[in-house]
Amino acid sequence: MRGLTEALRELAYRLLREGEVELFLGYSWGTLPLVVRPCFATRPEQVEAFIFNPLCLPNLVKYLLRFEGRRVAVVVKKCELPSFRQLLADRNLERKKIRLVVAPCGGLLDPAKLQKEFSGQPLEFIADRGKEYVVRVGEEEKVLAKQLYLYPRCFSCPQKDEDLEPEDIRLEFSTSLPSLEVDPYAGVSYLEERPAEERREFWDRVFKRCIRCYACREVCPACSCHECCFDPPLPGWQRTVDWMSKAHWLPEIYQYHLTRALHVAGRCGECGECERVCPVKIPLMLLVKKLAKEIQSLPGVEPGILASYSPDDPEPH
User: Fold this and answer.
1) Does residue 254 sit in helix, strand or coil?
2) Where are the extended beta strands (E) located within 47-90?
3) Which sequence spans correspond to the domains of the chain?
4) For residue range 227-251, what is the model confidence (pLDDT) as tens digits?
5) Which domain of life is it from (predicted)?
6) CA atoms of 212 and 157, how far apart (whole Å)
7) pTM, full prediction
8) Residue 313 — very low, low, confident or very high, per pLDDT cuts 50/70/90?
9) What are residue 169's DSSP bridge partners?
Protein backbone atom coordinates (compact mmCIF):
# COMPACT_ATOMS: atom_id res chain seq x y z
CA MET A 1 0.00 0.00 0.00
CA ARG A 2 3.06 2.19 -0.17
CA GLY A 3 2.01 3.12 -3.69
CA LEU A 4 -1.13 4.82 -2.40
CA THR A 5 0.90 7.03 -0.05
CA GLU A 6 3.31 7.92 -2.86
CA ALA A 7 0.43 8.81 -5.19
CA LEU A 8 -1.06 11.05 -2.50
CA ARG A 9 2.25 12.84 -1.94
CA GLU A 10 2.77 13.39 -5.66
CA LEU A 11 -0.72 14.82 -6.01
CA ALA A 12 -0.31 17.14 -3.01
CA TYR A 13 3.09 18.30 -4.29
CA ARG A 14 1.67 19.14 -7.73
CA LEU A 15 -1.39 20.97 -6.42
CA LEU A 16 0.67 23.11 -4.05
CA ARG A 17 3.53 23.74 -6.48
CA GLU A 18 1.21 24.84 -9.27
CA GLY A 19 -0.84 27.02 -6.93
CA GLU A 20 -4.08 25.15 -7.53
CA VAL A 21 -4.65 25.03 -3.78
CA GLU A 22 -3.29 27.03 -0.86
CA LEU A 23 -3.65 24.22 1.66
CA PHE A 24 -3.72 20.43 1.52
CA LEU A 25 -5.36 18.51 4.39
CA GLY A 26 -4.27 14.92 4.88
CA TYR A 27 -2.79 12.51 7.41
CA SER A 28 0.58 11.85 9.02
CA TRP A 29 1.89 9.59 11.76
CA GLY A 30 1.29 10.90 15.27
CA THR A 31 3.66 10.83 18.23
CA LEU A 32 2.13 7.67 19.71
CA PRO A 33 2.46 4.19 18.17
CA LEU A 34 -0.23 3.29 15.61
CA VAL A 35 -1.86 6.73 15.93
CA VAL A 36 -2.51 8.85 12.83
CA ARG A 37 -3.24 12.57 13.08
CA PRO A 38 -4.41 15.33 10.70
CA CYS A 39 -1.62 16.98 8.72
CA PHE A 40 -1.71 20.42 7.06
CA ALA A 41 0.63 21.34 4.20
CA THR A 42 0.94 24.82 2.69
CA ARG A 43 4.31 24.27 0.91
CA PRO A 44 5.33 21.51 -1.52
CA GLU A 45 8.26 20.38 0.67
CA GLN A 46 5.86 19.53 3.50
CA VAL A 47 4.06 16.74 1.63
CA GLU A 48 6.64 14.10 2.59
CA ALA A 49 4.83 13.82 5.94
CA PHE A 50 1.61 12.60 4.29
CA ILE A 51 0.50 8.97 4.58
CA PHE A 52 -2.63 6.99 3.89
CA ASN A 53 -3.39 3.60 5.39
CA PRO A 54 -6.17 1.78 7.30
CA LEU A 55 -5.31 3.68 10.50
CA CYS A 56 -6.38 7.05 9.05
CA LEU A 57 -9.45 7.33 11.23
CA PRO A 58 -10.09 11.10 11.63
CA ASN A 59 -12.78 12.72 9.51
CA LEU A 60 -11.08 15.86 8.15
CA VAL A 61 -14.07 17.72 6.69
CA LYS A 62 -14.80 19.71 9.88
CA TYR A 63 -11.38 21.37 9.53
CA LEU A 64 -12.61 23.06 6.34
CA LEU A 65 -14.60 25.47 8.53
CA ARG A 66 -11.31 26.93 9.78
CA PHE A 67 -10.16 27.88 6.29
CA GLU A 68 -13.17 29.72 4.92
CA GLY A 69 -12.43 31.47 1.65
CA ARG A 70 -9.16 29.62 0.98
CA ARG A 71 -8.52 27.14 -1.82
CA VAL A 72 -8.21 23.82 -0.05
CA ALA A 73 -7.80 20.16 -1.01
CA VAL A 74 -8.86 17.59 1.57
CA VAL A 75 -8.48 13.82 1.73
CA VAL A 76 -11.79 12.05 2.37
CA LYS A 77 -13.03 8.49 2.48
CA LYS A 78 -16.37 7.53 0.93
CA CYS A 79 -18.01 7.18 4.35
CA GLU A 80 -17.20 10.84 5.08
CA LEU A 81 -18.82 12.31 1.98
CA PRO A 82 -22.25 12.61 3.70
CA SER A 83 -20.60 14.82 6.36
CA PHE A 84 -19.17 17.05 3.65
CA ARG A 85 -22.50 17.19 1.85
CA GLN A 86 -24.18 18.25 5.08
CA LEU A 87 -21.77 21.14 5.60
CA LEU A 88 -22.58 22.28 2.07
CA ALA A 89 -26.31 22.02 2.77
CA ASP A 90 -25.85 24.11 5.91
CA ARG A 91 -24.19 26.75 3.69
CA ASN A 92 -20.97 26.63 5.66
CA LEU A 93 -18.61 25.96 2.74
CA GLU A 94 -17.82 27.54 -0.62
CA ARG A 95 -17.80 24.47 -2.87
CA LYS A 96 -15.89 25.96 -5.78
CA LYS A 97 -12.81 26.51 -3.57
CA ILE A 98 -12.68 22.93 -2.27
CA ARG A 99 -11.18 19.93 -4.05
CA LEU A 100 -12.00 16.54 -2.63
CA VAL A 101 -9.34 13.85 -2.84
CA VAL A 102 -11.26 10.59 -2.40
CA ALA A 103 -8.95 7.89 -1.11
CA PRO A 104 -9.85 4.22 -1.64
CA CYS A 105 -10.60 2.46 1.62
CA GLY A 106 -10.85 -1.26 2.23
CA GLY A 107 -11.90 -0.71 5.82
CA LEU A 108 -10.25 1.02 8.77
CA LEU A 109 -8.56 -0.93 11.52
CA ASP A 110 -9.10 -0.52 15.26
CA PRO A 111 -5.88 0.84 16.84
CA ALA A 112 -6.87 -0.54 20.26
CA LYS A 113 -7.00 -4.09 18.90
CA LEU A 114 -3.69 -3.64 17.09
CA GLN A 115 -2.05 -2.17 20.20
CA LYS A 116 -3.11 -5.23 22.14
CA GLU A 117 -1.88 -7.59 19.41
CA PHE A 118 1.45 -5.94 18.58
CA SER A 119 2.27 -3.98 21.77
CA GLY A 120 2.64 -0.69 19.90
CA GLN A 121 5.18 -1.94 17.34
CA PRO A 122 5.12 0.10 14.08
CA LEU A 123 3.28 -1.52 11.17
CA GLU A 124 3.92 -1.19 7.47
CA PHE A 125 0.88 -1.95 5.33
CA ILE A 126 1.88 -4.05 2.33
CA ALA A 127 -1.32 -5.12 0.54
CA ASP A 128 -5.10 -5.29 0.67
CA ARG A 129 -6.40 -8.74 -0.25
CA GLY A 130 -10.09 -7.96 0.14
CA LYS A 131 -10.83 -9.92 3.30
CA GLU A 132 -7.45 -9.29 4.89
CA TYR A 133 -4.53 -6.87 5.10
CA VAL A 134 -0.90 -7.91 4.80
CA VAL A 135 1.39 -5.96 7.16
CA ARG A 136 5.06 -6.03 8.05
CA VAL A 137 5.98 -6.01 11.74
CA GLY A 138 9.74 -5.66 12.06
CA GLU A 139 11.16 -8.23 9.63
CA GLU A 140 8.07 -10.44 9.67
CA GLU A 141 4.95 -10.31 7.48
CA LYS A 142 1.58 -11.00 9.07
CA VAL A 143 -1.96 -11.33 7.74
CA LEU A 144 -4.79 -9.46 9.50
CA ALA A 145 -8.32 -10.72 8.90
CA LYS A 146 -10.51 -7.64 8.51
CA GLN A 147 -13.42 -9.36 10.25
CA LEU A 148 -11.35 -9.43 13.45
CA TYR A 149 -9.64 -6.04 13.35
CA LEU A 150 -12.06 -3.65 11.62
CA TYR A 151 -12.95 -0.39 13.33
CA PRO A 152 -16.58 -0.62 14.59
CA ARG A 153 -18.08 1.94 12.21
CA CYS A 154 -16.78 0.00 9.19
CA PHE A 155 -19.11 -2.92 9.90
CA SER A 156 -22.05 -0.75 8.79
CA CYS A 157 -20.29 1.05 5.94
CA PRO A 158 -22.85 1.82 3.18
CA GLN A 159 -20.10 1.55 0.50
CA LYS A 160 -22.02 3.98 -1.71
CA ASP A 161 -20.44 6.18 -4.39
CA GLU A 162 -21.33 9.86 -4.40
CA ASP A 163 -21.34 12.29 -7.29
CA LEU A 164 -18.25 14.49 -7.38
CA GLU A 165 -17.37 17.72 -9.13
CA PRO A 166 -15.08 17.56 -12.19
CA GLU A 167 -12.28 19.19 -10.17
CA ASP A 168 -12.37 16.48 -7.51
CA ILE A 169 -9.90 13.59 -7.66
CA ARG A 170 -10.25 9.87 -6.98
CA LEU A 171 -7.04 8.10 -6.08
CA GLU A 172 -6.93 4.74 -7.84
CA PHE A 173 -5.75 1.76 -5.82
CA SER A 174 -6.87 -1.86 -5.61
CA THR A 175 -8.76 -2.18 -2.34
CA SER A 176 -12.11 -3.57 -1.23
CA LEU A 177 -14.23 -3.99 1.86
CA PRO A 178 -15.70 -7.47 2.22
CA SER A 179 -19.46 -7.79 2.44
CA LEU A 180 -20.37 -7.89 6.13
CA GLU A 181 -23.89 -8.88 7.05
CA VAL A 182 -24.24 -6.83 10.21
CA ASP A 183 -27.40 -5.19 11.54
CA PRO A 184 -26.44 -1.51 12.06
CA TYR A 185 -29.14 -1.20 14.72
CA ALA A 186 -28.28 -4.36 16.67
CA GLY A 187 -27.07 -2.45 19.73
CA VAL A 188 -30.13 -0.21 19.69
CA SER A 189 -32.50 -3.17 19.37
CA TYR A 190 -30.82 -4.92 22.29
CA LEU A 191 -31.30 -1.88 24.54
CA GLU A 192 -34.90 -1.41 23.39
CA GLU A 193 -35.68 -4.93 24.56
CA ARG A 194 -34.37 -4.25 28.07
CA PRO A 195 -36.76 -3.16 30.86
CA ALA A 196 -37.01 0.61 31.36
CA GLU A 197 -35.18 0.47 34.70
CA GLU A 198 -32.28 -1.43 33.17
CA ARG A 199 -32.03 1.09 30.32
CA ARG A 200 -32.01 3.97 32.79
CA GLU A 201 -29.25 2.33 34.83
CA PHE A 202 -27.21 1.81 31.66
CA TRP A 203 -27.38 5.45 30.57
CA ASP A 204 -26.85 6.72 34.12
CA ARG A 205 -23.71 4.64 34.33
CA VAL A 206 -22.20 5.78 31.03
CA PHE A 207 -23.21 9.43 31.35
CA LYS A 208 -21.71 9.68 34.84
CA ARG A 209 -18.34 9.25 33.13
CA CYS A 210 -18.85 12.42 31.06
CA ILE A 211 -16.41 15.23 31.96
CA ARG A 212 -18.16 17.79 29.72
CA CYS A 213 -15.05 18.41 27.64
CA TYR A 214 -17.27 18.95 24.55
CA ALA A 215 -14.83 16.99 22.36
CA CYS A 216 -17.82 15.28 20.71
CA ARG A 217 -19.25 18.67 19.74
CA GLU A 218 -15.93 20.07 18.52
CA VAL A 219 -15.22 17.15 16.19
CA CYS A 220 -18.76 16.66 14.83
CA PRO A 221 -19.25 17.99 11.27
CA ALA A 222 -22.98 18.43 11.94
CA CYS A 223 -22.23 20.67 14.95
CA SER A 224 -21.29 23.67 12.86
CA CYS A 225 -23.20 26.52 14.51
CA HIS A 226 -21.18 29.72 14.88
CA GLU A 227 -22.77 30.24 18.29
CA CYS A 228 -23.54 27.20 20.42
CA CYS A 229 -26.30 27.14 23.00
CA PHE A 230 -23.91 25.40 25.42
CA ASP A 231 -21.39 28.27 25.41
CA PRO A 232 -21.91 31.31 27.66
CA PRO A 233 -22.91 34.32 25.55
CA LEU A 234 -20.74 36.69 27.61
CA PRO A 235 -17.29 36.47 29.19
CA GLY A 236 -17.11 35.45 32.83
CA TRP A 237 -16.98 38.93 34.37
CA GLN A 238 -20.15 39.96 32.48
CA ARG A 239 -22.01 36.69 32.90
CA THR A 240 -25.39 36.67 34.59
CA VAL A 241 -27.32 33.42 34.10
CA ASP A 242 -26.22 30.62 31.79
CA TRP A 243 -28.72 28.27 30.18
CA MET A 244 -26.67 25.37 31.48
CA SER A 245 -23.55 25.13 33.64
CA LYS A 246 -20.64 22.72 33.19
CA ALA A 247 -21.10 21.23 36.62
CA HIS A 248 -20.71 17.47 36.88
CA TRP A 249 -24.40 16.96 37.56
CA LEU A 250 -26.19 14.05 35.91
CA PRO A 251 -29.39 15.93 34.88
CA GLU A 252 -27.31 18.53 33.02
CA ILE A 253 -25.16 15.83 31.43
CA TYR A 254 -28.35 14.26 30.11
CA GLN A 255 -29.51 17.67 28.92
CA TYR A 256 -26.29 18.24 27.00
CA HIS A 257 -26.11 14.87 25.26
CA LEU A 258 -29.82 14.61 24.41
CA THR A 259 -29.96 18.20 23.13
CA ARG A 260 -26.91 17.64 20.94
CA ALA A 261 -28.22 14.31 19.64
CA LEU A 262 -31.57 15.82 18.67
CA HIS A 263 -29.85 18.85 17.15
CA VAL A 264 -27.92 16.68 14.66
CA ALA A 265 -30.66 14.08 14.11
CA GLY A 266 -31.40 13.76 10.42
CA ARG A 267 -28.19 15.62 9.57
CA CYS A 268 -25.67 13.20 11.04
CA GLY A 269 -23.46 11.38 8.53
CA GLU A 270 -22.70 8.67 11.12
CA CYS A 271 -18.94 9.12 10.76
CA GLY A 272 -18.51 8.09 14.41
CA GLU A 273 -16.07 10.86 15.28
CA CYS A 274 -17.99 11.79 18.45
CA GLU A 275 -17.47 8.32 19.91
CA ARG A 276 -13.89 8.02 18.64
CA VAL A 277 -12.63 11.14 20.41
CA CYS A 278 -14.54 10.68 23.67
CA PRO A 279 -11.85 10.37 26.38
CA VAL A 280 -14.15 8.35 28.66
CA LYS A 281 -15.52 6.07 25.92
CA ILE A 282 -19.22 6.92 26.10
CA PRO A 283 -21.06 4.87 23.40
CA LEU A 284 -22.47 7.96 21.71
CA MET A 285 -23.23 6.12 18.48
CA LEU A 286 -26.00 4.27 20.31
CA LEU A 287 -27.82 7.59 20.65
CA VAL A 288 -27.09 8.44 17.03
CA LYS A 289 -28.29 5.05 15.79
CA LYS A 290 -31.45 5.21 17.92
CA LEU A 291 -32.48 8.51 16.33
CA ALA A 292 -31.46 7.28 12.87
CA LYS A 293 -33.65 4.22 13.39
CA GLU A 294 -36.62 6.39 14.32
CA ILE A 295 -36.06 8.64 11.30
CA GLN A 296 -35.74 5.57 9.08
CA SER A 297 -39.25 4.59 10.09
CA LEU A 298 -40.65 7.80 8.57
CA PRO A 299 -42.01 7.26 5.03
CA GLY A 300 -39.74 8.55 2.30
CA VAL A 301 -37.03 9.76 4.68
CA GLU A 302 -33.45 8.53 4.91
CA PRO A 303 -31.15 9.44 7.85
CA GLY A 304 -28.56 12.02 6.92
CA ILE A 305 -30.67 13.38 4.06
CA LEU A 306 -32.71 15.98 5.97
CA ALA A 307 -30.55 18.65 4.43
CA SER A 308 -32.91 20.66 2.24
CA TYR A 309 -36.06 22.55 3.01
CA SER A 310 -38.40 25.07 1.47
CA PRO A 311 -40.97 27.53 2.81
CA ASP A 312 -43.52 25.45 0.89
CA ASP A 313 -42.73 22.21 2.76
CA PRO A 314 -45.93 20.79 4.28
CA GLU A 315 -46.28 20.69 8.04
CA PRO A 316 -46.34 17.18 9.57
CA HIS A 317 -49.70 15.99 10.84
Assistant:
1) helix
2) 72-76
3) 2-107+154-170, 186-296
4) 888 877 666 555 555 666 677 889 9
5) Bacteria
6) 29
7) 0.85
8) low
9) 101
